[in-house]
Design goal:
The protein has five helices and no strands. By secondary structure, the chain is mainly α. It has a domain of about 40 residues. The longest helix has about 40 residues.
Length: about 150
């Protein structure tokens, strides 16, 4: 008897060329889709950031945009549009009044935060920390004159 161990052929598990091509096309398609999603999400985040920061620093424009949007979505007549605009302007004044009252408290807490964290840092870290916190304040907090503070 002969030894059949040497004659056993391995089972073909290789992917045929047409299947390989299809798999490659699918993988490239998925990669393109994922890249598009990442780029789209990044651009959306950038645009939203700019819009929000602009709104924080230009509240008058926001009020006008809200009034225009309400007018178009609800199909307001001239009288209704004028009354809604007046209401929005009045509410904006009330919100600014609240902000005026709260702004000094927020500033005081941010000052304390800045000092307490700086006390833990080295001089180089403190300079970087102060720069970052100042940038955060400029970006996300309305200027004192916008909040009605002196």
């Amino acid at each position: 008897m002969t030894n059949h161990v040497d004659t056993i052929q391995p089972v073909a598990t290789a992917i045929s060329p047409p299947q390989r091509r299809r798999l490659r096309i699918v993988l490239v398609g998925v990669a393109i889709l994922l890249c598009g999603m990442v780029i789209g999400a990044g651009l959306t985040a950038i645009v939203l950031h700019k819009v929000v920061v602009h709104a924080i620093h230009n509240p008058d424009e926001v009020t006008q945009r809200i009034a225009a949007r309400i007018r178009s979505k609800l199909n307001l007549n001239e009288d209704q549009a004028a009354r809604v605009s007046a209401i929005l302007a009045e509410r904006r004044k009330a919100i600014l009044s609240i902000r005026r009252e709260a702004q000094p408290k927020v500033e005081k807490e941010l000052d304390r935060l800045q000092e307490e964290v700086a006390a833990v840092l080295t001089p180089d870290q403190t300079a970087s920390w102060n720069k970052r916190l100042d940038e955060l304040r400029r970006t996300w907090l309305p200027r004192r004159d916008e909040a009605g503070a002196p």
